[in-house]
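Re: your question from the hallway

Yes, I did run it. Sequences:
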Amino acid sequence: MSYNKQHIESVEVRKFADELEDLKLINADQKVQVHAAFKDELYTPNLFIRIGLFVFTIVLVLSGTGLIGLTISALLAEQIVLGFAMILCGVALIFILNFFIKAKKHWKSGIDDCLLYLALVFIISGIGVLTDFNSTNAIFIVSTVLFGLVVWKYADSLIAGLAFITFVCLILLNTYENPNLLLFVPFIVALISGVTLYIFNKKIINATHTYYLKSFQVLKFMSLLTLYISLNYFVVKEGYALSRTMDGGTAVSPAEAAIQNQIDENFLSIHETYADTTQESAALRDRLTAENDKLYMQLGMENQKRMELEDQRSIPFGVLFMILTAVIPLVYILAGLYKKDRITLISGLFILFLSALTFQKYNPAIQPEWLLTLGGVFLLAVSFIASRYLRSNNRIFDVREPSASDDFLQAEGIVLGTTFSSAASSAQPGNQFGGGQFGGGGAGSSF
Amino acid sequence: MKEKYLGLLEEKGILTNQHSSSIKNYFFTRPFSLFQELRALMYLGVILLTSGLGILIYKNIDTIGHTALIGAIAIACGYCFFYAIRFARPFEYGKVVQINIAYDYILLSGCLLFLALEGYLQFQYNVFGDAFEIATLIPAILFLISAFRFDHIGVLSLGITSFISLAGLIATPNIISLIDDFSSEMVFTAIGVALLLIFAGWYLKTKNLKKHFTFTFYNFGFNLLLIALLTAQINFALPLLYFIILIAACGLLFRYAVIEKSFYFLLMSVVYAYISVTIAFFTWLDSGAAALYYFAFSCAGVIYFFINYKKLFKAN
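Structure:
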């Protein structure tokens, strides 16, 4: 790993001390002692400075590589040279990145994130150029391995998520087009997600250092999502339909074929009418053109009828997928509450929404506006009743406003409110370019 | 993780064993907070309900009737303001914490409903005719007074926006829309309004009247001023003059940002100044390779500045 674990731990301990002081578990004196004993040696600027550094680093790197490219532009005409040059650029960026981490002690500074992402872009597109973008498989394999290495070295949670996505895509690519395996693809993906879920959950529970913790949490979240998505009725159905069309396309119905034939014949006759310029042939041409217009309309209707039939065609284990679509969100929510596991709970709430959409899609009787209205009433009722009930029974669950530095979910944007100056936080910095009539919405509440 | 940290603190002799175990006990028995989740559900519920009802009303407008709808909006809006006035804490020049979280939202809803009501009346009955000035003047006054009386920054933003609209400008900090159809009148109006807003913010700060509103005034004021100056620099004669004024304004903003430790304004001042310098550079020098050199060195300079501005500032 590249970053200094000790330094990161110091920063974490300092944050922990801040939280303890917020909760009045230690006094200010003790906090000062902690800050004296655990030095903050890493360079992690404020979020806004980080954004600025990120953007300016992108421009700097791109214009730098552009300058190099200009000087050796004659060589780059060769595809192989271009590919290797890009990979070389990526590797050079990695060296610069390591310099910033080791010598300048950057950590989440905007520069290090940016260099890492740009290096990956350069290396992967370099490999793409070398293989002529022919082999999707090669790109995905290289990306997965590369992302894995990067996560191991730099513990970047965004790349961890990307690694998981490329990994799942790789599995899909290699099972999807195989007609023998097609039926089992949902179960294969679900099984693999289940295994990764188990592994990353263990990793989180047994973690002794925060270094990889965020990456593992992202991976767990992704595993939970893919486990659900692979078994979602809509995804499975559309997946099968997609593979059928990729499989040489679905056969057109006999009715459609007959109409198409008639249209083609008419076209031939129309073509022939151009040979002579008599009045009759002109009349014939008009008649045939009109007929073709009608036939096209019929063809469209037939086509739609076939699509509708196809849509109604049940998929293998359809009922099972329907049940799973309904049950998995509830299982996640209950498991999240029972285990007091925020990631599972949040993903459960999120996919509950997806399940609602799925059922709406296949039940035209549920009109979208009623789904919205009733769903809104339901959610309001649940949140209102739950907070009313839990306010007086808060031994297990708490519904009061927590302290600013609570658990992982207090995303960086939220924590910003406490690290940033009070003046700025009260005016919702996220909205600076919003302008317009609703520019101030949501202000005035605490985070 | 927390246990490990507590162990470390014990090792360093900062916490006693007893203290550490009582903290451990606190975290172990602490109830699991559902605050964020329930609040998210509530937000989502409100969004779904309002959009669902919106579509339902839209589809059934023939049976409901416009008058009934306008009446309903008016009653809801009136209730919101009634609630705001009835339960308001007494006026103070400092920050005022209202009775509960819902209070701020009710006031904000009242203001938004007022806008909806006004728009509806104009659309359906053309109440204001062509006198759009009056249509923007009323909410501007109402919102600014409400913002100061009930101490609400969101309503203040709404009020400032209406005020800027009143001055003949839509205050979206959108460079493209401004450059697309600008006129010198519009740009100078914008500069005037922006200076007024900045002055208002400065005045509130120095006189200690609602000091916390200064950020909002400065945010609108400086964005408007700098965009107007950029437009002037690109399109008008004497670009050098506007360039110098813009850099001076950025300098002022930067100074304020450092004093107030506001990283947002810091980033803003640097980015506007950089855009202006870049425009100046390309007006006077136009060449492909030079552009790459310019970007490479200037970006390196800005990055150096971001990393070292504290040192640079202390040295002065």
